[in-house]
Design a protein that fits this description.
51% helix, 77 residues, alpha+beta, binds zinc ion
Amino acid sequence: MRATQPQLHTYLEVVMSENRYRIDCASTPNESGCTLVIEGPDDDVLDAAVEHARSKHGHTDPADVVRESLRARLEPV
Ligand SMILES: [Zn+2]
């Protein structure tokens, strides 16, 4: 059993790190000077980022279009 524990630990670390993403408003120049960072599982980050982009940055494209453009900006954490 002892030999399996490091493997499990490594596996969990990989899974968790692969599921964590960040979008940093400061990484893209914006008129409002927004520096908000949203971090978490990719779908949750995208949900929050779409709302934020539309309410705070005046994006008027359909939510799914905004979502796909934001997906390209996800940075693995
Ligand atoms: Zn912002």
